[in-house]
Write a structure and sequence with these properties.
By secondary structure, the chain is an alpha+beta fold. It has a 3-stranded antiparallel β-sheet with strand order 1-2-3. Helix 2 packs antiparallel against helix 3 and helix 2 crosses helix 4.
């Protein structure tokens, strides 16, 4: 009986710890964009070699520099430099497939981004 009670207590603790990750079912923002050639280079010209940096540069190009691809959509989150600075960590906390990462680094795909408070999920269109 003690084992059963301990197992139930442990399971309850695991569920309680996991609950915040599922508490926010709807994104606070969603947008789609084309990750064009300009998005693959940092503002000072060096090439970017990871998906998170390229997505961040896309938002800097869109909001700060006015460099936009025809299908780029606006968002209300990454217009602030401080929020763009968080983008890479937000992607580490979120979800992106390996195939999407490769497509972003190797090409100019269209993506959609779902933005939550502390993470983002990225998918290819």
């Amino acid at each position: 009986m003690k084992r059963l009670a301990s197992a139930l207590l442990a399971a309850s603790a695991l569920i309680a710890c996991a609950a915040p990750a599922f508490a926010q079912a709807d994104p606070v923002e969603s947008y789609c964009a084309t990750l064009g050639e300009a998005d693959h280079f940092a503002s000072d010209g060096y090439p970017l070699d990871n998906a998170a940096a390229i997505i961040r540069q896309d938002r800097a190009n869109f909001h700060q520099f006015g460099v936009r691809d025809p299908s780029d959509e606006n968002d209300s989150i990454f217009g602030r430099k401080a929020n763009r600075a968080r983008l890479e960590q937000m992607l580490r906390n979120g979800d992106i497939s390996r195939s999407a990462e490769r497509a972003i680094v190797r090409g100019t795909p269209d993506i959609c981004v779902d933005v939550y408070d502390d993470f983002i999920n990225v998918t290819l269109l």
